[in-house]
Amino acid sequence: MPLxxxxxxxxxxxxxPENTSQPFxxxxxxxxxxxxxxxxEYRVPDRQADEQEDxxxxxxSNRGHDA
Length: 67
What we know:
Organism: Corallococcus praedator
Pfam families: YacG (PF03884)
Helix content: 25-40%
Region (Disordered): 41-67
InterPro entries: DNA_gyrase_inhibitor_YacG (IPR005584), Znf_NHR/GATA (IPR013088)
Strand content: under 5%
Protein name: DNA gyrase inhibitor YacG
């Protein structure tokens, strides 16, 4: 079975008994990934925000509300 590539540098990743940084190839790549999460380079989509945007009137008017 071929080794999986590191998600950061694409080098082959040794199996867990030989590599405590799994699924990364090294502690460095693991730290790079953490830095990307902390720097907000990765984002998890907010489904609730998407659903709320779909409910807004498309013409920008406030229907049903007296001003």
